[in-house]
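User: Hi! I'm working on a homework problem where we have to compare a predicted structure to a textbook description. Could you give me the structure for the chain below?
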Amino acid sequence: MKPTANKIAAFLTITALAAGALPLTTNHAHAATYVANSAVTTAQLTNQQIEAAVKELNNLGIMNGYIDRSMGEHQTISRAELATLVYKTFHLKDKTGENAELTDVNPNAWYAPYASKVAGLGIMETSNGQFNPHSQVSDAELAQVVSKALQRDVKSVHYWMSAFYVDNSSATRGETAVLLQTARQAISSERAQIKSVRSLNAITLIVTFDKPLRAEDEVFTKAQTDFAFSGGLTLTNMPRLKTGSIATYIVPTSVQKAGEVYNLTYKGQAAGTFEGSGTKVNMTTVSQLTNDTFEIAALQENGVVDYGYIISAYSGGRGANAFVLDDREQAGGKTYQIIPSMQARQVMITPDGGEPIVAKYVPFTQSTDGKQEPKFRLPVGETLIPGIKYTVSSDWANINIASFIAKSFDPLQVTSAKALSETSIKVSLAEDPGDELFSGRSVTLTSPSGDVLTATYKYSSRKGLRAYSISARMKN
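Assistant: Happy to help. Predicted structure tokens:
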């Protein structure tokens, strides 16, 4: 073991959980309910749509016809043909990456350079070096290939294919053309410009661009500079692309003033005006979780959805719980309110007969463990007094049941600790509290000589049930 690792091992006598910071709580019965794929349309592709898409791709030099001058739009598409279309549609010539060596592709074949490139980039799969160029492409494979080429979530691609997607069915050239026609519009651009902006609720804007933003333009520090509002309004976190949209973003803001007209500029250019909304998000119940932390629940069955279930960036990790809202914020004929990012959000909590206390959002807790229940924590050193009634109020939310009687929670019990590396440890607990409660928490590590280190919880590292563990990065 390295000397540093020996030192860390010596510190693994955990003396206390910081400030009794990890009190036991239990699972709650008011978990959110979900819808899945409810926005998928049942409309079918028309010949006009297919012909228009084929003609557009042909004019662009992406799709060519056969010797008999037909476009073969109703014929099934082969992997060789798909490789060619994907290469040209997404400008893969400019992508860096080694070409793959394909044992079943003749180097002189018309499709050889395209197949080699898409395979080398990992966009199309091979089996033991074989590309199988003449195999038919299934709808499922088509979705995966376009998702990888576009670097967009597969749920969005499925949504764009909803007019023709069938499990275990082969895709046609015409269907592929229609999908690629849509996917071309979803290629990100450094020159993206805002087409429209509207206020959805007091802390949320819906902003539509002509093209999706590049990943570097979505980063919060840059977006804060690019998005500029009048009236003191500010961006509170990064814009997030809606699942299934081409270039529509959920944009969180500080609390808007109802009726005030705001001006928006983007990258220094005037981008439109919008009227501030007085609509608050409808939340359900406040529940105490620890001696200093509480949560505010919202239910999808009541028409409220956390943005984490409807944005492209998270759709892969949410599985069947992820779904698509259309441009009217509807799914299955039902209109939803959206809870945007809670970053920098706060609420007031007031004890009976006492003064209000500001409680701040606990990062990464707003939709975890299958629930949409953002957590809020009292200032450091303050705790809820058992037996006292507390009421939570907010300038961004309506809360149906906003009060609770505080109670005391016992600290969680540490059962073991183990060094994972020179800078992190794993701590196992006797019970799983059933939620992501450890953000911002720390434990102390004391060596036999009395030296002390602080280990801070590493976000989203909680795993297991009763075999509970957390990982923490250490600093002096």
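For your comparison, note the following. The CA atoms of residues 151 and 311 lie 14 Å apart. The mean pLDDT is 88. Good luck with the assignment!
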